[in-house]
Amino acid sequence: MNKKIPDKMISRREEFIGRVIDILLDAGFIVSEKCTITPRCFDIVAKRDALSLILKILLNIDSIKEDIVKEIKKLASKIFAHPLLIGEKAGNLYMKQDVVYCRWGIPALNIDTFRDCVINGIFPIVYAERGGYYIKIDGEKLSLARKERNISIGNFASMLGVSRRTVSKYEEGMKTTVDIAINLEKILKAELIKEINIFSDDIIEYNPEEDDKAIIKDKIPMLERKMIKHLINMGLDISLINYSPFNVLSKIKDEIILTGVTHLDNMALKKAKLTSSISFVIDRPAMFILDKEPPMNKIDDIIMLHKDDMKYMKDIEDLIELISNRKAS
């Protein structure tokens, strides 16, 4: 049985989310409405120019579960966005400023570090791992600076108090402690420390092969199963998304459509409104396929379809034509 979250904690988290939204707006991002469905794999989506972010905001980053993270990473990879965790604590300790943490392969920052990144363009240089804090060195620059000063690997190792093999590893790009990194720059009088670009694709640990390829499963409701199967037969590339206002990503050629397949009720309309906000921010089309005749053809820019509309569509071109007609109506 799930434990009820205290109202005080909920209000603290809502206030924390509000602070993150204010930072994004100050930094010139377009920000979606807060995702209010539960459970959810993200809280807000934001975009500035070509940079799209999917943010999960937590009081404690250790509270996030692996299945939630898997959905964030899957969604981010499909819509070309960068997933981030913003938190206050890691375990029992407050998160340090200018340090990147990591949970299940997603970078995690405190709010001050996040502000520096998106407003000031200042990226952290330290990342936290088990055993302490570490820094990445530009191995190529290190090797060049050492050779320019005619310092042998052996002598350099003695200066640092490490082995020759360790120096070689540093020059190959191995991480080092904060103290060693500072000492390296001091001895060689060179800037060697690499900043951590939290918006780089290289920082996310994601393997697309981990995605569940079994689209049609018994646990999926019958309506969703039938509609998803029909979309696949029409030639669409389909990915299931859990813990989100929309439950399917439909790919037509190079276009991703945020898709909801669900029963028509108040929750479905709420999800459609949230999806509309996300669709606007990331500039992706969206549609909902419902088991009953929808009360309107569109909610904002979301196309609302009845399941029977799908019976007359045999291929992708039919769907594109229907969406175009609904948009124009």
UniProtKB/TrEMBL annotation:
Gene3D superfamilies registered for this protein in UniProt: lambda repressor-like DNA-binding domains
SMART domains from the UniProt entry: HTH_XRE
Alphabetical UniProt keywords: DNA-binding, Transcription, Transcription regulation
Domain (HTH cro/C1-type): residue spans on this chain: 142-199
Pfam families: HTH_3 (PF01381), PDDEXK_19 (PF26553)
Single GO MF descriptor: DNA-binding transcription factor activity
Classification via CDD domains: HTH_XRE
Protein name per Swiss-Prot or TrEMBL: Putative HTH-type transcriptional regulatory protein EF806_01915
Taxonomic lineage: Archaea, Methanobacteriati, Methanobacteriota, Candidatus Methanoliparia, Candidatus Methanoliparales
